[in-house]
Every structure is written in structure tokens, then in C-alpha cells.
Amino acid sequence: MIDELKIFTGNTHPELAKEVCLYLGISLGKAEAFQFSNENTFVRILENVRGRDVFVIQPTSAPVNQSLMELLIFIDTLKRASADRITAVIPYYGYGRSDKKDQPRVPITGRLVADLLTVAGAHRVLTVDLHAGQIQGFFNIPVDELTALYILRNYFMEKKWDNLTVVATDIGISKRARDLAHMLNATLAIIEKRRVGNNDKTETLNIIGDVRGRRALMVDDEIDTAGSLVVAVTALEKNGATEVYSCCTHPIFSGPAIKRIAESTVKEVVVTDTVPLPEAKKLNKIVVLSTASLIGEAIARIHNGQSVGAMFEK
Q1: What is the structure's pLDDT at 314?
Q2: Of the residues 101, 193, 201, 285, which is catalytic?
Q3: Whole-structure pTM value
Q4: 281 is annotated as an active-site residue
Q5: What CATH number does domain 2-147+292-312 carry, 3.40.50.2020, 3.40.50.720, 3.40.50.1980, 3.20.20.80?
Q6: CA-based angle 268:215:161, to the nearest 5?
Q7: Residue 278: CB partners within 8 Å, gap ≥ 6?
């Protein structure tokens, strides 16, 4: 059945799509996607997809709205070209942080994006480490959520550290941090923090757990402006941590993030390639791990009707 599988990509992260195709041993589908001078997006599929099982790889990262619109038009184009099944592979789900009404008169944009994808014609969604698990419930189509936790675990296991404490950067990420701590035979600490308004500023309130005299490994699903990271590093060092490391799945690194990381005393920031990392944002202390085999294996299993969850069973 593998000859019926087709993978396409938009302009956001073609490097990841090529690596996924290399893992699967197939060629990347031929298509073109560009903007006219009036900023209208145009997509054309350059090969036959009638009756095919098609996957479109496109994280909805910067430029977020352009990436999202391009993905929607890709899906609509494939639907009108009579593809049998269309799976939107979204390694990073933009607007995922807008998953609930936490203030009066605000949108739930994560749900809106889910509706847009469904109306466009997606039959299924494949994603990696959603900001909140309940986003899966925004869809009326199947959603497979992968996790990069095992990729991060393998990297840190090779260091053979002892005296390690895994630190959740907030209470919401504590389950993921606890799972990583268990995998690495480490203790767990949690940073209790409060976000100030809508300006990406946070105020650290307290560290729950003991980090004194220990190496601290912070865990988060994404790093955006790195403001929380810098504040957390300072708090951990004040509480006696000997060294501080950080890891996350999605390296958004917007605004002053790279400058903040460069000037911070954090020893290493380990991330994955769910979103592209331009050369200008690559520092010696930033390590990028590949998710191509993770995504590629999931695509193969979906295509062949096998369990995706079995990938994470021990």
C-alpha cells in the first residue's frame, strides 16, 4: 500500500517534510504554493492524487497566519483533486495556547482553527505535544497526538547524570515533567508562576520541591520569548541549583528570545525540529533533535491501519 501514500508540504518547514520522506523511502509530492502580489495564496498540485492517501506537513508557526492559510488551501486543493483521505500533519499547532476563555470577551482560537481545518476538508490531524490535551476535543475528526518526550529522554539518558531534578516550568506541564523525571530516575520540582496580563510577562511565585545542590532540567512544551525561562533560571539558581538546563518540544524563539538565552546562565537548551530554526537563531547552547522518524513512523502506521499509540507502549 505504500505506493498509494503521498506527502506534500507547504513553505513553512520543507526540510522536515524531506526528512520524513527520507525515513519512509518515498519522494516528496510535487506542488507549488506562493502568494500573488495582492497577498492571496495560491496552491497547485503537480501530480495525480485521485484516490490517494495524502499527508500535508505544515507546522502553523511563524508566519503563523500565512502558514495556517496555506495549509487550509492545500487541504481544499487536495479535496478538489479527489484525494481519498487527507491528513493534516501539524507538528506545531499554532493558537494552541488560546484553548479556553480565561478572560471576559476573548476567543477560543484553538477551537476556531480546528473548525477551519475540518471545513477545509481534513479527514484526520497528526500533531506533536499540544499545549493542552483538551484541544483534541475541539475536533470532530480523529486526532493523533505524538510526544517528543522520548526523544528528549534518550538525549538526556546518554549524559548519565545523577543528582538530577526535573523542573516543570508551571503547574500545567507538571504531568509531562513527572513522566520525564520517572524516565530519568530523577526527582521532581514545580515552578509556581503567575502570568501578568497579555504581554508575555510572568511573575515567579514559588518553587515546589528541593533543587539545592542538584542539577535542574526545566521542561516545557514550547519556549516563546524565553522570558519565563530567564526568570526560572534565576529562581532555580537562587534556590541552590548547581546547573540549569532546559528542554522543550517547540522552539518558537520569538522577539528577544535568542538574546535572552545567549545572555542567560542556562547551560543548554534542547529542542526539536517541529518548527524551523533559522541560522540566525542557532546558538552553541541550543541543541536541535529530529522528529522525522517519530512523524514518519506515525504516518506509516496511519496509512497501514496500525496503532499509533503502540509506538509509545513499553
Answers
A1: 61
A2: 193
A3: 0.94
A4: no
A5: 3.40.50.2020
A6: 85
A7: none
